[in-house]
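Proteins fold reproducibly. Look at a concrete instance:
___
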Amino acid sequence: MPLFTAEGSLGLVLGNATALALGAVPGVAGSASAVLGALQFGLAALVSPLVSLGGEGTAAPLAVVMLASAVVAVGALVVARRAGAGTGAGAGAGRVSG
């Protein structure tokens, strides 16, 4: 059930996250979309073998890799927010308020 919840929510999150990221750079949205696609493909290629190293008998390696990926994502968010705090940029800079 936890795996279903984690994977099932991606359909709701990924489309909106991509739209927000591309909205921050409307002049180069095509290039930004290509970079996002390449990053997703590249990270999947790097992370998939890590899961297979644990063997076929248990889902523990999958859980460890998913947890590590989530920790890295939260760390990247914290760094991006700190970097953008002084400049007015950072996470959500392209957001329209109103």
The chain has a mean pLDDT of 83.
